[in-house]
Amino acid sequence: MIVVMKSGSDDATIQHVIDRIGELGLQPHVSRGRFRTIIGAIGEEAESFLPKLKSLPGVDDVLAIMRPYKLAAREFHPEGSVVRVGPVEFGGRACVGIAGPCAVENDTTIFQVGRAVRAAGARMLRGGAFKPRTSPYSFQGMGEDGLKILRAAADELGMPVASEVMDPRQVELAVRYVDMLQIGARNMQNFTLLSEVGKTRKPVLLKRGLAASVKEWLMSAEYVLAQGNKDVVLCERGIKTFEGAMRYTFDVGAVVVAKRETHLPVIIDPSHAAGDRQWVPGLTLAGIAAGADGFIVEVHDCPEDAMCDGPQAVFPAAFAEMMDQCRAVAAAVGREFPEAE
Amino acid sequence: MIVVMKSGSDDATIQHVIDRIGELGLQPHVSRGRFRTIIGAIGEEAESFLPKLKSLPGVDDVLAIMRPYKLAAREFHPEGSVVRVGPVEFGGRACVGIAGPCAVENDTTIFQVGRAVRAAGARMLRGGAFKPRTSPYSFQGMGEDGLKILRAAADELGMPVASEVMDPRQVELAVRYVDMLQIGARNMQNFTLLSEVGKTRKPVLLKRGLAASVKEWLMSAEYVLAQGNKDVVLCERGIKTFEGAMRYTFDVGAVVVAKRETHLPVIIDPSHAAGDRQWVPGLTLAGIAAGADGFIVEVHDCPEDAMCDGPQAVFPAAFAEMMDQCRAVAAAVGREFPEAE
Amino acid sequence: MIVVMKSGSDDATIQHVIDRIGELGLQPHVSRGRFRTIIGAIGEEAESFLPKLKSLPGVDDVLAIMRPYKLAAREFHPEGSVVRVGPVEFGGRACVGIAGPCAVENDTTIFQVGRAVRAAGARMLRGGAFKPRTSPYSFQGMGEDGLKILRAAADELGMPVASEVMDPRQVELAVRYVDMLQIGARNMQNFTLLSEVGKTRKPVLLKRGLAASVKEWLMSAEYVLAQGNKDVVLCERGIKTFEGAMRYTFDVGAVVVAKRETHLPVIIDPSHAAGDRQWVPGLTLAGIAAGADGFIVEVHDCPEDAMCDGPQAVFPAAFAEMMDQCRAVAAAVGREFPEAE
Amino acid sequence: MIVVMKSGSDDATIQHVIDRIGELGLQPHVSRGRFRTIIGAIGEEAESFLPKLKSLPGVDDVLAIMRPYKLAAREFHPEGSVVRVGPVEFGGRACVGIAGPCAVENDTTIFQVGRAVRAAGARMLRGGAFKPRTSPYSFQGMGEDGLKILRAAADELGMPVASEVMDPRQVELAVRYVDMLQIGARNMQNFTLLSEVGKTRKPVLLKRGLAASVKEWLMSAEYVLAQGNKDVVLCERGIKTFEGAMRYTFDVGAVVVAKRETHLPVIIDPSHAAGDRQWVPGLTLAGIAAGADGFIVEVHDCPEDAMCDGPQAVFPAAFAEMMDQCRAVAAAVGREFPEAE
């Protein structure tokens, strides 16, 4: 860590900081400039040291040097990790397409949509049984009935299935039915939920929060990893900015940065970033070109009847066309999507 | 609602939209312009209609006219609400100061700090027993032991106490010890948690999310209100923007807007917005001048030993000085803070 | 336009709005709901009507329906435009690579770098003679001497050259030396400068402002077009957000939206978005996959000696490698980059 | 400056950085940690050193320690500056109210509005003769005719007048008529314009850019100061964020930070932040409570006829009421506004 003193700090103030650095088990290196003194604090950094040092009188700023996410950082684990969900691998040469309706709505749509996306080349199914909705008056998901339908569809189609959990109390139930636990953007810093899925041995799909920096996203992954669950896949899904042309601003640079900053696989969710189906293919191709390990996309055969997020659901035919383009772009960057069946 | 059709939409496409509007129980009013057709959909708007209409072919945009938060909107409840927490009232002429350490750390600090802030004029105590921390390696709070200490301090000092819950499973425990349940910024859209506190009869302090619009904030209040709990106090605590001079950007305009948009009381949390104690008094005075019904501020008698957020904790003496300024500014805008004891 | 009245507006207030709409030459269509009245104002919308209507008593909001950028909007000009800069075409099937050092620094670098990027497949040269610098103490560019060197390099290499103008007084000089006038992000709403370059017959490269919505960007293009200069190429270069991993957030979605919203060509500037050379190739590939018509990239053979922006300058060898990847991705989306010579 | 090396950098790479630091005239202090090496570079920092060091192989990050705005920083000029515009002083105990219509529109409005705001306690007049408009089809201001009317009004009313310049070519003209040159938000980084007003001896009112950090704002002030013009008054007017309740997010914290970070006076422009007159008083009071040295507000006697920005123009009666509240709040924080005449 580096401690920057305020200009004009006197010797006693500086000495108090030096003493405190020593008490934390770090070695102080003092550099006195004409206006400012800076003190390097060398040794094993702990996240908690930062506010302690910043609270000291005379301290202007404290800068951490090491990544605080020891388990997630590529700095400490140079090799890329591969996360397996049944027969599907995230983080290898092959990219993974996950597709399906926003929510499980009844016992037919998921089968129909699932068959269509599998035929187009998707390798995993998605569908929500617990739905985080901004309005308390909106459809909140089918709960366990939805999970049962999801399981049945996954089994019939031979595709692993990912589904969201919103509440630590849903985790035990969900692990019985689904192959991958999804943490939504609004729960990226729901720390008890992160710990709970970290205690399972199910792979976790961790969406980036709407206002989360890449660093905070990786700190949330660290919560899961710290519980012993090594199978975390990150998912960029757009951030909140002033730009209103799409629902969120798809941060393709976060894919580029995250792929270098962590060894965990990184996929994209263009549907929620776009909020409108017309933008989904463009964002998807951009993400794959940038190095994403796959995508999760919402598909519906009759979006105007969808229980949620109809405007962003891609039609099955458009999805098939998009998969063809994805295959071409993936090949261009040395990756591949499986051929349609 | 207003449906804006894409330019060049043909009659059949427009008719399909008109039919759908009718099926939703709304009355369509069609206005054809040279380039565009717009269709007013008059009647009782439901949040769920919007995506349904937006999913229809030929629809460019759908605009909601009515506030989707029926219970929170001043539009439907013109009188300001008063929320009572023991002897303390939020939303009346008097402003309320809530103060205390970030976390309950041991069984002495909360008493010492509590005595100091009460003497300065604070009327409620704060302190966290469950702490949302970005790092899994940071202090996570004392849990039930912390709640017990909080209760004891509140009883001894004769001040009601507010404390955060992060997990639906903590609610039942917390209601036994605290007088007001706090929902943190990162949980503003933790919908199952909102429902859970909505089922209690404890007043709720709802912080605004880091990336939440005022509208989304009020939708989250609606979650609590919809469960029958009428006692919600809103709290502005800064939003994420590009500006890094403080930890967050304190959105004083949100106080101004929220006071007009909802009948619920609105207070401010300058400590988390600032992230540094030197900025706390300035933000507090700004918020009170803008019409806030009070504040919640972190105070610590030895910030360098604080288990969390030391840099933003105000010293007791500075807090007392700030209270004096608050009294003056409140009086200037026709409000009041109680005199120090 | 659509005028939304406040709830509870009385008949006289509504009639006043209706009268004003009539005076503007628009036809009012009134829809009265239970709580709110909305009034469609059908006819030729002018940008200036919006604030006039919004100023009226009882008006809650006014929504524009038609694009205010008549010349830039694809709504009114469905065919994509092609902008020619000498032998180079923007907006056709071929993508264009523009490359060169940030600034003209002396009379050798631009030739060396130019030769290298031309060999790798770049078709236009870049280099700044007038440099917008955040600090008054930084290198401000070589001025006319720089323009002369640029011209000489362009002539020797047989590549057209783009260079920035910052001040209306520089335009006359710059048109004598360069083939394309660049407007930087910080001048996107420098309206007198936009008008000035609009009066020339040189193609204009218009960077998006750091806080400009796509709509505002197109309004700025309209300023140039409205002066009779039809040759505008738009350039996405990142926006200001809370995310600090790169210097700016590269908004790849803006490329997708702009390509649909306007008939003008759209290219990308990954260098300024990234601020660090390691991120440049990833962003470039993302932009091309999303449909960009080309890119402008900073290249330097000795970045540590660059007079400005060294950290983001790509080495010539890395640029050549990146061009190969661009060729592959362009082919994957039905476009092409010319082969290296 | 502090140079942070990438983990695993070898000795030769580190030595190259040490050598370069020495060549810049700085003294290197090396601290080797287990994973990382950090190098303090002690001495006179120049803004240009940062990119040079960041360009070096093996360098992960470079952190500046000293303020790059030597003339604007309070660090080097602890005393607050007072800027005089005729009889009016910014930065003293008294706060200054500047008010008037958005634009000079004709030869009567400015007199009428001027008389009203003077009677209410405003001490300076505002009015635009050159108007930056997002649309090329909107009213662009009356130019020199407008300046003449402004001067006549200022003389008759005995109030100094501030007016905007948008183009370096307007400066010579404007200095003949107005008492204070205003630089608008969109021109905050129009560096040639800043230099041009810096060469005059007229006080400058420098608005903060829509996406400018406080640091960048002060760097722009430095441009003016570096030309020898010491009379700069800063003006916070809202930044672009995701929140759409007001037109911009009024960053009251920037007032608090700027007052500590620079010795220059800081005022607020609540009108452009709000975009709607109903929010103007609340924001104004917040800004004054936070320590602003005054405000600039738009007032119009018939906003629905205003040539621009009618929705945000306050009526004269509301302005008088707001001035009364400002007087009370100013007194509460130890400042004062002059009594109404």
Task: Tell me what the structure shows.
The structure is a homotetramer. With about 350 residues, the first copy, chain A, is α/β, with parallel strands linked by helices. Chain A folds into 2 domains: about 1-65, Alpha-Beta Plaits, CATH 3.30.70.1140; about 85-330, Alpha-Beta Barrel (TIM Barrel). In chain A, about 35% of the residues lie in helices and about 20% in strands. The first copy, chain A, contains 11 helices and 14 strands. Chain A has helices spanning about 10-25, 50-55, 110-120, 145-155, 170-175, 190-200, 215-225, 250-260, 270-275, 280-290, 315-330, and strands at about 1-5, 25-30, 35-40, 60-65, 85, 90, 95-100, 125, 160-165, 180-185, 205, 230-235, 265-270, 295-300. In chain A, the strands form 3 sheets. In chain A, strands 13-12-11-10-9-8-7-14 form an 8-stranded parallel beta sheet. A 4-stranded antiparallel beta sheet of chain A has the order 2-3-1-4. In chain A, helix 4 (about 145-155) links the parallel strand 8 and strand 9. In chain A, helix 10 (about 280-290) runs parallel beside helix 11 (about 315-330). The longest helix of chain A is centred in the last third of the chain and has 17 residues, at about 315-330. Chain A is elongated and about 75 Å long. The termini of chain A are far apart. The mean pLDDT of chain A is about 95. Chains in contact: A-B, A-C, A-D, B-C, B-D, C-D. At the C-D interface, helix 2, helix 6 and helix 7 of C face helix 2, helix 6 and helix 7 of D.
